[in-house]
Amino acid sequence: MATIATTVRRHLPLRLPRICVAVTASHAAEMIEKAESLVRDNPFIEFRLDYVRQPATVLPRLRRFLEYHPEVLAIGTCRRVAGGGKFRGSPVAEADVLVKAAAAGCQMVDLDLQSALAMKPRELDRVRSAAAVILSFHDFKATRKLEETYRKMIAIPADFYKVVTTATCLADNVSMMRFLEQKSHERSVIGLCMGEQGLISRVLGVRAGSAFTFAAVTQGEETAPGQLDSRTLRDVFRIEQVENSTRVYGVAGDPIEHSLSPAMMNTAFRRETVNAVYLGLHAKSLDDLMTCVKEIPIHGLSVTMPYKEDIVEYLDNTEPVAAKIGAVNTMVRAQDGKLYGFNTDVAGVVRPLEQRLPLKGAKVLVIGAGGGAAAAVFGLKERGADVYITNRSSRRGQKLAKRSRSKFVTRNQMRKLQFDAMVHATPVGMGTSKSSPLTEKEINCKYLLDMVYVPAETKLMKLARARGVQVIPGSEMFVQQGARQFEIWTGKPAPLEDMRREVSNALEGRK
After folding, report:
1. How many Cβ atoms are within 10 Å of 442's Cβ, its own excluded?
2. Cα–Cα distance for residue pair 496/485, rounded to 1 Å
3. Is the pLDDT of residue 403 over 50?
4. Per-residue pLDDT at 9
């Protein structure tokens, strides 16, 4: 990385922290109070002065704060509305605030490219002589023309060049990281993509050459779309440990925002000291996803809806049971670079059941005929269970029954039978829904496994408990299928209790 300009270099540490926490507030006292609350764990702070109606009112308090905390590395930012901020003053007024922020103790100031281009040379010189300058550019619509933007920026002398774009697809992260890899050898650069699909760049950008990245104080206090809070970046994604040898895994689907997999799998990696990070990948197309798999590269994927079936054609091979099911939920990159598919939903269903009853000869009803149901059916058949299928669409249910050599039953037929176990494998009851696929009288079994895990307690589960049926929650299926993924990827036993605890805490937090 290029050295920092000698005029300000002595004010900055030789190695910058990886995370700069952006502090916002509508009043001066509140801004400093927030900074006080986080300074112990986060000594690198950006003060977003533009969030205060009169930014100059923060400066006396900021001076006292920085004098009391000499360990703090501070960035002063007063971004104008034209650059995506909240300051309504002119470029000259922005420059004046930044110079005063430097005088109050900020070692660095952020100057938007639009403002810099509108300033006269003497105004620019005044800012540059006051502190280290981060010259920043923000594109709130797309990731494009990175090279052209960079050339325009380096015409203006600065200490850091920050390029922030918006990811409209996962592959935009690849473009940003390639840019960082090339330019970080020339100058000190900061780069990331905004938006939900920009998560990859926020975690892996520092590995690609970004001098640091930005985080929010807490969820809900983001200064840019897709920004993570500092605790999530540090504790969940372990950004301080991310390096070139860190393997990248992720959960891919559409949507992906509320997935519990990143928290669970990163916990497992941390517990077993695996040098890996697991990301949420909102893939709007399989071609986009596979570009990232190839270019980053990604060593393993948890595949969720709607790609479990379609991804098969992109793989070099699949395990026999996944081939029978016609769907995979797990991908692994082998040492030879080839991609292999597995279906660990099978383990998610079979493991919890076989811990409670012998499956050989057991009479099991699977409710549903989609991908999850197929995994349950074929997994149970492999263990010798006597499998029955019921489904709202008889045609689809009969098709799965024929393919798996199981028995299809209508709802009327089902009511007359008694089962050792039932497996619910439809989306009914998911999220805020209060529906149940069965009435209480139809739950005629000893054990019920509900594959729905959000919410933690579905209406179907409540009805089953009222009938005296032993319930296996969807969270157990979710943990077990994740544990099998972990084993496939790492060759290590999964830390089941830690994974269960993480999922339980996450579900409790969502109530």
Report:
1. 18
2. 12
3. yes
4. 40
Say if 110 falls within a structural domain. yes
Assign residue 339 a region: left if phi > 0, alpha if psi is -120 to 50, beta otherwise? beta
The domain in which residue 318 lies consists of: 248-343+480-510
pLDDT tens digits, residue range 444-470? 999 999 999 999 999 999 999 999 999
* Rounded Cα distance, 77 and 64, in Å: 18
Positive or negative, the CA dihedral 392, 394, 397, 401 is positive
**CA neighbours within 13 Å on the CB side: how many for 340?**
14
3-state secondary structure of 486: helix
| Global model pTM greater than 0.85 | yes
Is 107:73 a contact under the CB 8 Å cutoff?
yes
Rounded CA gap, 365 and 448, in Å? 10
% of residues, the chain, pLDDT over 90:
93
User: What does R_g of the chain's alpha carbons equal in angstroms?
Assistant: 27
Phi-psi region of 468 (alpha: psi -120 to 50; beta: other; left: phi over 0): left
Return mean pLDDT, the chain. Answer: 95
CATH number of the CATH domain containing 384: 3.40.50.720
Task: Please tell me whether residues 17 and 97 are part of one structural domain.
Answer: yes
And the tokens for 224?
A: 């840019």
The CA distance from 261 to 257, in Å, is: 10
Q: Which residues of 315-345 are buried (b: 16+ CB within 10 A; e: fewer)?
A: beebbebbebbbbbbbbbbeeeeebbbbbbb
CA distance 367 to 452: 12
Element (H, E) at 386: strand 386-390
Task: Please give the Cα distance from 372 to 390 (Å, whole number).
Answer: 14
Asked if residue 374 lies in contact with residue 312, where contact means CB atoms within 8 angstroms, the answer is: no
Given a contact cutoff of 8 angstroms between Cβ atoms, the answer to whether 46 and 107 are in contact is no
| Structure token digits, residue 189 | 């650069």
Amino acid of residue 231:
R
Tokens of 228: 């993570």
Return the active site residues: 308
Segment 176-207, tens digit of pLDDT: 999 999 999 999 999 999 999 999 999 999 99
* 254-264 CB burial, b ≥16 within 10 A, e <16: bebeebbbbbb
The answer to whether position 272 is within a domain reads yes
